[in-house]
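ARCHIVE CARD
Drawer: 12
Card no.: 0347
Subject: one protein chain, sequence and derived structure
Cross-reference: see card 0346
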Amino acid sequence: MQERSLKLYNTDKTFFVKISNKLTQLLMPTKFGINNIMITVKRNNLLKAYNSYKEAIKEKNPVKEKSTTQKYEETYALYLEAIDKYIMESLYKKVKNNIASQFEKDALSSYYTVVNLKDTNYTEYKHRKQKYLLELEYQGLSTSHKSAQINKITPFYIEKMDTLYKGIIKNYSVQLADSLNKIINKEEIYTKVFDTIEEYVINILPMKIQQEEYRGNKELTSEYEKYQKFLIGKLDDIDTLEKNVILLAISRILFTHSLPLATAENCYIKLLKDARNMLVKYNKTNKYITIYNEFINFIEEYNLKLLSTKVYWDKPNERDEYKIFWNQYQSIQKITDERELRKQKEILFIKEDLKLLNRSKNDYKEIIKIYKNILVDFGVMKQLKNSAKSGQTQKYTGKINCRGTVCGNTL
């Protein structure tokens, strides 16, 4: 008996372990059910408090608004706590006991990814954890096809997610504006900005457009329709650039305060650099015409949607130079022939960007060479320096198509 007993307890799958595992599996649905009930109760309390809070705002009653706001915040905290408890007590155990679905496994993995932000960036963690918990609950309701509950919670969900996304983007804006912190990888932050805006466009914007406040917003609807074509198929770097330009345009409509003008300008400048690099990369290839046309459209959008609205300029001379550019642009807009209008715009944009690059301390010789080829083709530049022999000039004799590849002799 002693030998059998020792043998029994040293086996991985002993009788007692099997019983324990079986009991855990049997009790799991009960625990899961209790947590579900608690989440439902907390959700109902939250929605009552939220509706009272919205009514108080409409009535413009400061006393009532203060009390309902406090109640709303308390019920919101308890609601999130119930969802968090469900993850730790039910979801974790289901994954641990290998009885979880793939969705539940992915959900737990995402949860720990968010939690890991706590030690590195608490502000981002605070917003992203709330966003994660709300998304998990909303997706759970959607997959269970509980339409009545979804309809009740959707207005709250859109408003709260709107606030959380704005908080995340504002946090990134602060990091981009921090010139003293050398540890921050600005390129990584730019990527996070565009990824977060895209998350919002995919998950929240379709619901937001249905709201009465935004239903008639033609600019927002138009930009969203442009974005939708990027939802199908694999994107190359040119597609990604075009997509990010659209996302930035959407952000200028929805996240004006969270993504301030200075930060938005830095995002535009970052995309402008990417576009220049692509012009060099795809020069003399079939993709050149695509990136060139996208580049011209992007420069126009940058000037129309950002620089033309810019009030404060760091350097007064830059403001004066932009006024001259803007007057020229306005004059060109009066041209009725579409081909001539496009041509004059291209000349203006290329000359203006060439002026900026010539002032820069960075090495832009490849893109400058492309710009000069384009201007020669348009007939606004006749002689260019030969980059191979300093101090000499050479007439350009080759034929250049500014919307396609460069042909003939190089400069």
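Annotation on reverse: The mean pLDDT is 82. Residues 146-290 form one domain.
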